[in-house]
Design a protein that fits this description.
The chain is built from 13 helices and 17 strands. The protein has 368 residues and is an alpha/beta fold.
C-alpha cells in the first residue's frame, strides 16, 4: 500500500470547514508531511491570524486524515512563526515593525560571521525554569535532526548544570588543535560542553563575568566546522547568559520547553517575552511530561495536567510543536548515554521527538 499523496492530503483538508464555510487550506499551506508507522504527521504553514482560525479545526482535520488508506493516526501542527520586532525594543517599550523569519539567511549580527562562520542556522532550546526537560529535548532534537540527514552540532550552554556529557555518553575531553577545541562526535552529531572540561562532581561556582567568558570560549574557541544547524541548549531562566548568547550569535529561532502546569507556564511565558525583546523569533512551544502511561496496564494519567502548553502557545500566538510523554525510558536513556531517539526509537517518546525533529528539519530546509 502506497503512502497518501500530497494531493490526497490536500483534498481531505479542504473538506474541513469552519462556521464561515472556509477550509483549513484557505488560511494555511501544506508545508510538510511524513508517514511513519501508520502515523501521518502534517505541518501547515500559516500566519498568526490564520493560526487562530485553524486551531479549533485541528481535531476535525486529524479525524479526517485518519480515513486515508494506510493511516492509523494523524497529527496536525502549525509551523507559523510569530514575527519578531524589526529592532529590539528597550525593556518596557512597545514593539515596532515586524519581519518574517529567515532561517539560514544572512546573519542578523556580524558576530555570527566571526564566531560560527560555517554554521548556517542556530536554534536555541530554552525554558523559563529548570527541571522541565529542556536538555533532554535539546539532545533528542539534535540527534533527531541528524537522523533527518542534516549536519548538526549541539552546544551545551548550561554552564552551571552541564548534562550533555552524561546524556550523550561522552567522557573524554576534546582534542585541542592550534588553540581550538574539536567537538566530540556522538550519535551522528558534533557536541561540546563545559562539562567535558571539568570533573562532573565539581560545582561551577562562577560569577557572571566567568560564565560569559566560558560561553565566549565555547563559541569562539571551538572548531564547529560546516553545519546545517547548531542546537544550543540554553541555561534555564532569563538572565545574563541568555543575553550574552543572543548578542554573540544570530539566533534564527528559539524553542521553549514547558510542563503543563500553570506555575511552569508562567516562566515559559517570560521566556517567550525575553526572546521577543531580543529580536529572536519563537519557533514554538513543546509540552514535556505531557502525560504518563503506566508501563504495565497502559493507563494514561495527566500527572501535571494536560494541554497547558498548547493553550499557552495559542494565547501567545506561537506554534505548538508537540507533546512529549513522561516515561521511565526517557530517564533511563539519558542516564545510559543513548538518547531515546536512538535507544528506543519506536517508543511514544522516541516517536514524539522524531516528529519534532522532522518538523524543524522541514522548516530549516524550506528556509535555506
Amino acid at each position: 500500500m502506497t503512502d497518501p499523496t500530497r494531493a490526497e492530503i490536500e483534498t481531505m483538508l479542504r473538506q474541513v470547514r469552519d462556521t464561515a464555510g472556509t477550509t483549513i487550506l484557505d488560511h494555511a499551506a501544506l508545508d510538510a508531511t511524513t508517514l511513519r508507522d501508520g502515523t501521518l504527521h502534517v505541518a501547515l504553514a500559516t500566519d498568526r491570524a490564520g493560526a487562530g482560525r485553524i486551531e479549533p479545526l485541528l481535531p476535525q482535520a486529524e479525524r479526517a486524515l485518519r480515513t486515508l488508506p494506510g493511516v492509523t493516526a494523524a497529527s496536525v501542527i502549525l509551523t507559523a512563526h510569530r514575527a519578531a520586532p524589526a529592532a529590539a525594543p528597550s525593556p518596557g517599550a512597545a514593539g515596532g515593525g515586524h519581519r518574517p523569519l529567515n532561517l539560514g539567511g544572512a546573519p542578523g549580527q556580524a558576530a555570527q560571521g566571526k564566531l560560527l562562520p560555517g554554521v548556517k542556522t542556530v536554534i536555541a532550546v530554552a525554558s523559563g525554569k529548570g527541571g522541565v526537560g529542556k536538555s533532554t529535548t535539546a539532545v533528542n532534537l539534535a540527534v533527531g535532526l541528524g537522523m533527518e540527514g542534516l549536519r548538526v552540532g549541539l552546544l551545551d550552554a548550561d554552564v552551571h548544570g552541564p548534562s550533555l556529557p552524561r546524556m550523550m555518553g561522552l567522557h573524554q575531553p576534546p582534542v585541542v588543535h592550534e588553540g581550538r577545541m574539536t567537538p566530540l562526535d556522538a550519535w551522528g552529531i558534533r557536541a561540546m560542553s563545559i562539562g567535558l572540561l571539568v570533573d562532573e562532581r565539581q560545582a561551577m561556582i562562577w560569577r557572571g563575568p566567568m560564565v560569559m567568558g566560558a560561553l565566549g570560549q565555547l563559541l569562539g574557541d571551538v572548531d564547529w566546522g560546516v553545519l546545517d544547524v547548531l542546537v544550543v541548549d540554553m541555561p534555564p531562566g532569563t538572565g545574563d547568559a541568555q543575553l550574552t548568547l543572543a548578542q554573540k550569535i544570530a539566533l534564527a529561532g528559539a524553542i521553549v520547553v514547558s510542563t503543563p502546569q500553570d506555575i511552569a507556564l508562567l516562566d515559559a511565558r517570560r521566556g517567550i517575552t525575553m526572546f521577543e525583546k531580543m529580536n529572536v523569533p519563537v519557533l514554538g512551544m513543546v509540552e514535556n511530561m505531557s502525560y504518563f502511561c503506566c508501563p504495565n496496564c497502559g493507563h494514561r494519567t495527566d500527572l501535571f495536567g494536560h494541554g497547558g502548553a498548547r493553550a499557552e502557545a495559542a494565547a501567545m500566538g506561537v506554534p505548538f510543536l508537540g507533546e512529549i510523554p513522561l516515561l521511565a525510558d526517557i530517564r533511563a536513556s539519558a542516564d545510559s548515554g543513548a538518547p531515546i531517539v536512538i535507544g528506543a526509537p519506536d517508543s511514544p517518546a522516541g516517536q514524539a521527538y522524531r516528529a519534532l525533529a522532522g518538523t524543524i528539519a522541514a522548516t530549516i530546509r524550506r528556509r535555506t
